[in-house]
């Protein structure tokens, strides 16, 4: 860090709040300084963010107290400090493994501070600079799924991040993503139908038209999805995304997307284009829509050499801001970067001897691969639950509903109905199903509709979640085993897709993605206290 920046930061060794000792500098941006600090009572390491506006605040000599450069800026500084504190409170209210956790908030030295997780890793902007190459599409897909988990928690809490970009996506030494820097985030609030807010920052190339125009009433999850699409574009190409500043919101010619994405699968290209639509009404509306596209598309081959795994012993600035220009309420600030070169890297080798024992989970993770299609007799009569007849379906027969058939294909007599705890037999096994079903008189199927239902197997296994064309498929699903083991997350084609498997007997959890056989594919194991055990 250069001399000018260090002069505006607390000296190493400074004690904050009587508890935290400044160990080193992590970053200095336009609106804050970030330090590596240690809790002197418990010897725990944290990152501490200090509210400090460049050009407005100053710290003279060895003084810890900051002052505002002139009286005209005092009111603005105080307002922005309150927003800084709200940012901390919003982060503390969220509980998600992909969102940086805030532990403490206090005022001192004429400003405010909050204490958060220290992520031992690097942000994706720093990784692109380190490797000078695009990321492999398989890695981007892995990170995208984790980012979506974090965004879903944010959106479900009535918030928008509003500054998704590579520099605000931290990846730790176990390849786990953490979203950081919620300084631009916005809480949904309405007074008389009008959304109330002050100026919202944005980053050129990652901000959609409604954000650049500060049109708060048009903000929504789709605002974050535009930035997410631009981020994916950057990761896959290592090229800066185009700006929409010269295009209107209703622009129909997506000329800003007429850019090459070599060695990227067609499915991923289409997803990027969809998320980066200029017209917000044409973008995805929720996380589930994006997940479905990811699950339906096949993983493309790597678009470059795999980037080196970075060592857990390696220390990167946290967070490392890059030189992307962040605009705040009409004012442009250039965020400076610590350009120190990282230490030589090592391959991370997991020597956890308990990994062999965890392989037994494969037996439990494999979900019964069967289409939840119930063949019946007499489907064309009255649409009541009493008319459902139980027949056996051979385990050797193909009972999957045709993938190409649409509801319209099923015939004019096709209709929906609802059953509750209805017993049926398929694959020579008694099951009970609660939920909506579709009746197709030819060839005579009942199958779950594309909405949530409950399926209970005779041995006590239970699935609760959405269905798609008669298959267990969709987001926010739960699968419970008789021994108490549980899986929560998304399903695709009757298999675990992306979620968390919890072993009841030990409390251990696997968090990550699963292959087509229901086995852990990429992710990590954690103990019952959330401590890392091993990578997969």
TrEMBL record:
Bias-annotated ranges (Acidic residues): 342-352
Keyword Membrane: yes
Biased composition (Polar residues): 312-321
Superkingdom of origin: Bacteria
An example molecular function term from Gene Ontology annotations: protein serine/threonine kinase activity
InterPro entries referenced in this protein's UniProt entry, alphabetically: Kinase-like_dom_sf, Prot_kinase_dom, Ser/Thr_kinase_AS
UniProt domain Protein kinase: residue ranges: 20-299
Membrane-spanning segments: 360-380
Pfam families: Pkinase (PF00069)
Keywords of this entry: ATP-binding, Kinase, Membrane, Nucleotide-binding, Serine/threonine-protein kinase, Transferase, Transmembrane, Transmembrane helix
Region (Disordered): 301-352
Keyword Kinase: yes
Stored PANTHER family: CELL CYCLE SERINE_THREONINE-PROTEIN KINASE CDC5_MSD2, SERINE/THREONINE-PROTEIN KINASE PLK
UniProt name for this protein: Protein kinase
Source organism of this protein record: Segatella copri
């Amino acid at each position: 860090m250069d001399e000018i920046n260090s002069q505006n930061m607390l000296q190493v060794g400074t004690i904050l709040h009587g508890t935290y000792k400044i160990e080193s500098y992590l970053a200095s941006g336009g609106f804050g300084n970030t330090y590596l600090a240690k809790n002197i009572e418990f010897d725990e390491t944290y990152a501490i963010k200090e509210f400090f506006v460049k050009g407005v605040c100053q710290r003279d000599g060895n003084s810890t107290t900051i002052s505002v450069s002139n009286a005209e800026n005092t009111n603005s500084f105080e307002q922005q400090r309150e927003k800084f504190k709200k940012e901390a409170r919003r982060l503390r209210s969220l509980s998600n493994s992909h969102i940086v956790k805030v532990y403490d908030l206090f005022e001192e030295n004429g400003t405010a501070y909050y204490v958060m997780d220290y992520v031992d890793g690097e942000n994706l902007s720093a990784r692109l600079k380190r490797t000078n190459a695009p990321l492999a599409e398989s890695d981007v897909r892995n990170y995208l799924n984790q980012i979506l988990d974090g965004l879903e928690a944010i959106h479900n809490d009535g918030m928008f991040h509003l500054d998704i970009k590579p520099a605000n996506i931290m990846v730790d030494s176990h390849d786990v993503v953490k979203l950081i820097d919620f300084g631009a985030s916005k809480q949904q609030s309405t007074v008389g139908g009008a959304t109330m807010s002050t100026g919202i920052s944005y980053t050129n190339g990652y901000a959609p038209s409604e954000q650049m125009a500060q049109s708060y009433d048009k903000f929504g999850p789709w605002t974050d999805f535009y930035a997410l699409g631009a981020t994916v574009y950057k990761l896959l190409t290592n090229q800066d995304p185009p700006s929409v500043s010269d295009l209107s919101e209703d622009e129909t010619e997506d000329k800003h997307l007429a850019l090459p994405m070599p060695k990227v699968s067609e499915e991923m290209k289409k997803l990027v284009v969809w998320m980066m639509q200029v017209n917000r009404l044409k973008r995805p509306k929720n996380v589930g829509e994006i997940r479905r596209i990811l699950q339906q598309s096949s993983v493309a081959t790597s678009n470059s050499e795999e980037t080196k795994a970075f060592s857990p012993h390696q220390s990167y600035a946290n967070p490392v801001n890059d030189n992307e220009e962040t605009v705040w309420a009409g004012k442009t600030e250039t965020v400076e970067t610590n350009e120190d070169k990282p230490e030589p890297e090592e391959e991370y080798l997991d020597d956890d001897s308990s990994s062999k024992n965890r392989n037994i989970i494969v037996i439990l993770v494999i979900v019964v691969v069967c289409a939840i299609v119930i063949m019946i007799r007499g489907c064309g009569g009255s649409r009541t639950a009493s008319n459902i007849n139980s027949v056996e379906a051979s385990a050797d027969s193909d009972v999957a509903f045709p993938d190409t058939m649409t509801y319209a294909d099923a015939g004019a007599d096709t209709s929906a109905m609802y059953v509750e705890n209805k017993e049926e037999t398929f694959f020579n096994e008694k099951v009970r199903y609660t939920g909506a079903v579709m009746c197709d008189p030819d060839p005579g199927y009942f199958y779950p509709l594309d909405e949530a239902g409950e399926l209970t197997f005779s041995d006590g296994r239970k699935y609760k979640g959405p269905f798609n064309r008669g298959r267990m498929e969709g987001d926010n699903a739960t699968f419970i085993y008789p021994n108490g083991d549980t899986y929560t997350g998304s399903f695709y084609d009757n298999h675990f897709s992306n979620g968390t498997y919890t072993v009841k007997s030990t409390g251990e959890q696997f968090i990550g993605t699963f292959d087509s056989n229901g086995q852990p594919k990429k992710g990590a194991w954690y103990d019952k206290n959330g401590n890392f055990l091993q990578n997969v």
